Amino acid sequence: MPLSVYILALSVFALGTSEFMLSGLLPPVAEDLGVTIPQAGLLISAFAIGMVVGAPLLAVATLRLPRRATLVALIAVFGLGQVAGALAPTYAVLFASRVVSALACAGFWAVGAAVAVAMVPATSRARALAVMIGGLSVANVLGVPAGAFLGEGLGWRAAFWAVGAASAIALVGIVTLVPPLPRPAERPRLTREMRIYRDRQVWLSIGTIALAAAGVFCAFSYLAPLLTDVAGLDDGWVPTVLALFGVGALVGTAIGGRFADAYLFRVLIIGMAADTVVLVAFALLGRYAVAAVLLSFLLGVACFCTAPALNARMFNVAAAAPTLAAATTTAAFNLGNTAGPWLGGAVIDAGLGYGATAWAGAALTTAAIALAVVSLRLQRRTPGSRIVGSGGATADPVCSEA
Questions:
Q1: 3-state class of 222 per DSSP?
Q2: What digits encode the pLDDT tens for the residues 101-125?
Q3: SS3 for 89-155, per residue?
Q4: 297, 247 in Cβ contact below 8 A?
Q5: Model pTM?
Q6: 164 touches 34 (CB < 8 A)
Q7: Which residues are within 8 A (CB) of 188 and not within 5 positions of it... i.e. 6 or more apart?
């Protein structure tokens, strides 16, 4: 695996820490800015909305630009967004800083994933993407709990300053260690790349990703109050449990990256079924402290096990347009990350309690499984289907089970 892929993973560590750390900071943010916890939860949705909008827009805007220079610019803007968040005097300013940071984060994910895939053979796509996603897993192991720890000891703004510093380190790594990629023989054309959206499998992949992400984040976004108000744990346990979720995410990413290239649909369906089981167990047993801690770990394993397969599936069905494939994947994940916290907040506002967010999440992951099954059946009926795009390339479907 090229060293530059690991540098991208280091950058993703900073991005992922910022994206997920608010799950452990909602109570102090809400108290400091004078808003409710569901309103503070919308800051998670704000980031996700910026990712949904920013991924395709920035992918299109930077399609013909040098990729390393694009990565440098995006990580710099992201870091400045963290500084703005740390200095935000009001909820509105913090909300805006989250959107700006998310736009840069989305563009980085799209371009970075395309760079990672371009540097490895087609048979190693899931592994390369797993390395990148591994940065996200480490963010959950170290970054998110550290953010919660800083938030508890030094105030939630300290967590934003720390992510800004991590972004600066990532910027130096990209400048010094990510090589410039050669320009393609034929300049990318947006009209050709947009042809991937004519294929049903692309839309099925989008739906599967969005529903799977929404199901997990419907509950995970409110993990801190789930642990304290439902399971009865002290606030000091929140960083530890978030770290356990991150350890589970690292384990899940390793499992998914190891098997997704050869058994893509099996990893998808089994992983999302595990998501559903864990969420149902959370709804039933979350009031017990030991069960809540164990299930947090298992939720990390299950949801991140599917992540390499979900990413690789989109690159396979949209192989003719790798940058748009990466952008579409990012947008789909964050469409789910937007809908999940919103649905969770609606469930809480309806008076159903924090535990009910797990029931809602399980319903969404069940729907994701159904779409994956439809995609598999369509793959079996049309194993030689072509995805027409730049240069008329043929997709490289991973369909050992088909």
A1: coil
A2: 988 888 888 788 778 877 777 667 6
A3: CCHHHHHHHHHHHHHHHHHHHHHHHHHHHHCCCHHHHHHHHHHHHHHHHHHHHHHHHHHHHHHHHHC
A4: yes
A5: 0.70
A6: no
A7: 63, 64, 323, 390
